[in-house]
Write a structure and sequence with these properties.
The chain contains ten helices and six strands; from the N terminus they run αβααβααβαβαβαβαα. By secondary structure, the chain is an alpha/beta fold. The chain has a domain of 88 residues: Isochorismatase-like (Rossmann fold, 3-Layer(aba) Sandwich), CATH 3.40.50.850. The relative contact order is 0.18.
């Protein structure tokens, strides 16, 4: 199946941002330098989504055991963002999730989070199966082991998921340096 240019590029008006399971106990299992990068890049995506009025959903996998979303990210979420608790590894397998994303009437799902080879991978593939155009942001995702992250990214590509990066997503959302939010958002990546 060949995608049109509008489906290959991430569109602010068609996007939803899904941040998967960046929670205290799970995050503490990641390498410190990688975790710092993941938090930074997800904060950039959340800030851009907030500025461009893109819906943000953040999931928490069994928060009783893995803790809440890390404060560096939860502090960035605005009152429009939605928290979703789950035990299923694929977000769309959890009761109520599909209704939550379908009511936005936006077919692009941009994903950041942890772990790449479990919840990110399963969520991306299931959302694609449900008819969404999925963008996994490689530099906003990670796993405890680098080899698992690399394997997940390869599997996503093999299955037709667009693997992108934070800067590409943000500039695709903006599309033009004349956009009223260009200066504000481009300053986030300097």
């Amino acid at each position: 199946m060949s995608l049109s240019l509008n489906e290959k590029l991430c569109s602010a008006q068609h996007s939803q941002l899904l941040i998967i399971d960046i929670q205290e106990r799970l995050a503490s299992a990641m390498r410190a330098d990688i975790l710092e990068m993941i938090i930074k890049h997800n904060k950039i995506m959340i800030a851009a989504a907030n500025e461009l009025d893109i819906p943000v959903i953040h999931s928490e996998q069994y928060p009783k055991g893995l803790g809440p979303t890390v404060s560096e990210l939860s502090d960035s979420l605005n009152d429009k963002s939605v928290s979703f608790t789950k035990t299923c590894f694929a977000c769309s397998e959890e009761d109520g999730f599909n209704e939550l994303i379908s009511k936005q009437k936006r077919k692009h799902i941009v994903i950041g989070g942890i772990e790449s080879h479990i919840c990110v991978l399963q969520s991306a593939l299931q959302l694609q199966r449900l008819g969404y155009t999925v963008f996994v942001v490689e530099d906003a995702t990670c796993s405890r082991k680098k080899s698992n992250h690399k394997n997940a990214i390869a599997r996503l590509r093999q299955n037709g998921i667009t693997v992108s990066n934070v800067e590409s997503v943000m500039f695709e959302w903006l599309r033009d340096a004349k956009h009223e939010s260009f200066k504000k958002l481009s300053s986030l990546i300097r």
